[in-house]
Automatic annotation (TrEMBL), chain A:
Keywords: Membrane, Transmembrane, Transmembrane helix. This is Uncharacterized protein. It comes from Parapedobacter indicus. The lineage of its organism: Bacteria, Pseudomonadati, Bacteroidota, Sphingobacteriia, Sphingobacteriales. The chain crosses the membrane at residues 20-40, 46-67, 74-91.
From TrEMBL, chain B:
It comes from the Bacteria. It comes from Parapedobacter indicus. This is Uncharacterized iron-regulated membrane protein. The chain crosses the membrane at residues 15-36, 168-190, 210-228, 377-401, 413-437, 449-467, 479-497, 517-535. Keywords: Membrane, Transmembrane, Transmembrane helix.
Length: 93, 557
């Protein structure tokens, strides 16, 4: 019953996906919530992140596993971080 | 379903699950008992908190004795009142008044001034018991309730000397709850297509693998919302600095105290010290009486006294609604004694803000303190169900890999991994029951005693069952010994204290009654489970215990 190996990735790819999902996912989640402080009251965003933040982070970790290539997902997450944080930064100044 | 995705869910669910299983079991097991933390404390000390009224708490008696010993003029004093209204933690800061401070400093060795307790002049932090009107240090007031409560977030592991900026035990607990959240999401997606049909499938008379699979799926699906809530709130409670640190860095200029104050966790408001002592001593009890009259359906959770005895003295009182009145809400009232006025007021029952609501969702759900014993007992049962999901998960993992196609060395490794996990997990039941008996037999049981009894017996039993390496024997015997010991808990309590269950119930000591009742039920259920397993083992001992052993079933006449 163990999962069929042919659908799972090589160790190097897996390493890429775990780092992208765990580290990248964390910063995507964080920068998204930072950006949201421009839309909503910031203390409300912070307290909401207690729930949405962790769930989103776990989902992003899973999405990284579902992606075909570890490089691709690292790139996507990096782009999202740049967009979210960039927008947050620009709106701040 | 997309076959590739299915396999990925499957793999990630399995791997994250098997990594965390043993620790998660400990967390769930100890956590389930932690719903009754105050009850266990009352049970151990044989002092019911149930008959105690919050209104009887005499703060002025405490303040007077503190004043006599320390001269409270110009100090900040904070009371953190415990849920049972019997105990409070007291934090007394150094004085704002330089003359008082100098005098205090002269009596002490000169040290740094910041930080709680140590180094902050003559500041002090201790626990106080209103029933006995006695202060106690933390170690003195340590009991089994505190032990299990702290075990459920692995505080005891903090003593492992691995320094990475955060206490080791908390970090492990945090990572485990995050992986748990991940395993829950993948598990749900894995079963999504068959969620309805699987829910109604229970084939207890089938092969063991199907029994475990059905149990894992059915109990997992029933418990899913409960477990998801625990995974999320657990991460929040144990490693929320993961969010607090960056948010305070970006949004609050790196000042996390400011963030905590804004979210209502703390009150770090400071008032300028005026050096104008008030003519009369300020009594705290009348203010508490006033709060009780204003907000009858709530109880005080914190009291902050700022600049005691000065013209600038303020008394801030936090109150939370009783669960019968409101789920969410946080009241705050600030008095200014010099002018006899109320500076700020927010009712706990009418004006719950969004922040209050989310916080109530996180904390009250996690502590299960919003509906009295019915909720706590249901949560206890759901928590123990979580333990069963974990055990059945380990067994599925093992059986699924016990095939001819898998190389022998791998099968051996898998078996021993499962053997170790199962031995560690299942021995918790007899060990916990045993420690409850031990603390009743030894009234002087302190932290060291509880540690010794609990951890050594746990180690010994685990090693014993690991060495025997028969999973079904481990299961059966821990159920039997656990069940018998559990039944002994109310007996020993009755004999030692005379507070038999019926006496405790008649005296209104419901907290003591509940602990006995819990153990009685645990004992009965364990013995029924033991009996069923033994019946089953007799009926068809040969084909199903392939994994575990050949000379497995010892017929007990």
């Amino acid at each position: 019953m163990p999962a069929n190996k042919k659908y799972l990735s090589s160790p190097w790819q897996r390493f890429l996906k775990i780092t992208a999902g765990f580290v990248g996912g964390y910063f995507v989640m964080l920068s998204l919530h930072l950006l949201l402080t421009h839309v909503f009251d910031q203390k409300k965003v912070v307290v909401t992140a207690f729930i949405t933040g962790y769930i989103l982070w776990a989902v992003l970790l899973l999405v990284a596993f579902l992606c075909k290539s570890g490089w691709k997902i690292s790139g996507i997450y990096l782009a999202l971080i740049v967009i979210f944080y960039g927008a947050y930064y620009l709106l701040n100044n | 379903m997309n076959i590739r995705n299915y396999n990925i869910y499957f793999n990630t669910h399995t791997i994250s699950g098997i990594i965390i299983c043993a620790i998660l079991y400990v967390i769930f097991f100890a956590g389930s008992f932690s719903f009754f933390k105050d009850e266990i404390s009352a049970w151990q000390k044989n002092r019911s908190a149930h008959t105690h009224q919050a209104a009887a708490n005499d703060y002025d008696f405490l303040l007077d004795s503190l004043h006599a010993a320390h001269n409270l003029l110009g100090r900040d004093i904070t009371f953190y009142i415990q849920d049972n209204n019997v105990q409070t933690y007291v934090n007394m800061g150094a004085s704002q008044d330089t003359t008082v401070k100098k005098k205090a400093a002269a009596q002490l060795k000169p040290e740094g001034r910041r930080g709680r307790g140590r180094g902050n002049g003559d500041a002090a932090y201790f626990q106080y018991d209103f029933q006995r009107k006695q202060p106690a240090s933390y170690a003195e007031s340590y009991d089994m309730g505190e032990f299990l409560y702290r075990l459920h977030f692995l505080a005891q592991l903090n003593q492992v000397p691995i320094r990475i900026g955060t206490p080791f035990g908390y970090l492990v607990a945090g990572i485990v709850s995050f992986l748990f959240l991940f395993a829950l999401i993948t598990g749900l997606l894995l079963h999504w297509d068959k969620i309805v049909s699987n829910f109604f499938t229970f084939r207890p008379w089938n092969k063991w693998k199907t029994v475990w699979t059905d149990m894992h799926t059915a109990l997992g699906v029933i418990g899913f919302p409960f477990q998801l809530m625990y995974a999320v709130t657990g991460v929040v409670l144990i490693v929320n600095s993961v969010l607090i640190l960056p948010f305070s860095k970006f949004l609050y200029d790196g000042d996390s105290e400011k963030l905590y104050t804004e979210l209502g966790y703390n009150d770090d408001t400071t008032y300028e010290y005026r050096y104008q002592p008030l003519p009369d001593r300020v009594a705290l009890n009348p203010y508490l009486k006033q709060v009780a009259d204003r907000w009858p359906d709530s109880h005080v959770s914190r009291i902050y006294i700022k600049n005691y005895g000065d013209e600038s003295m303020h008394i801030a009182i936090d109150a939370v609604p009783n669960f019968s009145r409101n789920f969410a809400g946080a009241g705050k009232i600030v008095f200014h004694p010099a002018t006899q006025s109320i500076v700020h007021e927010k009712s706990p029952v009418t004006s719950a803000s969004y922040v209050d609501r989310v916080k109530a969702l996180v904390y009250r759900l996690h502590f299960g303190d919003f509906g009295g014993y019915p909720v706590k007992i249901s949560f206890f049962v759901l928590g123990i169900m979580g333990c069963l999901v974990i055990i059945s998960g380990i067994l599925i993992w093992l059986v699924a890999r016990d095939k001819k196609s898998i190389p022998a060395h791998k099968r051996k490794f898998n078996f021993w991994a499962a053997n170790v996990f199962v031995a560690i997990c299942l021995t918790m039941l007899p060990v916990t029951a045993l420690t409850f008996i031990a603390i009743k037999l030894n009234p002087a049981a302190d932290q060291a005693f509880i540690y010794r009894v609990y951890f050594y017996s746990w180690l010994a039993l685990s090693v014993f069952y690991i060495a025997r390496h028969k999973l079904h024997v481990t299961n059966r015997e821990t159920l039997l010994t656990g069940g018998l010991l559990a039944l002994c808990v109310p007996l020993v309590n009755g004999i030692q204290t005379g507070k038999w269950m019926w006496n405790a119930q008649r005296m209104g000591a419901m907290d003591i009654f509940v602990v006995d009742f819990l153990w009685l039920s645990v004992g009965v259920v364990s013995l029924i489970a033991f009996y069923r397993i033994r019946l089953d083992g007799k009926k068809a001992s040969k084909p199903k215990q392939k994994v575990t052993a050949k000379k497995g079933v010892v017929p007990i006449a």
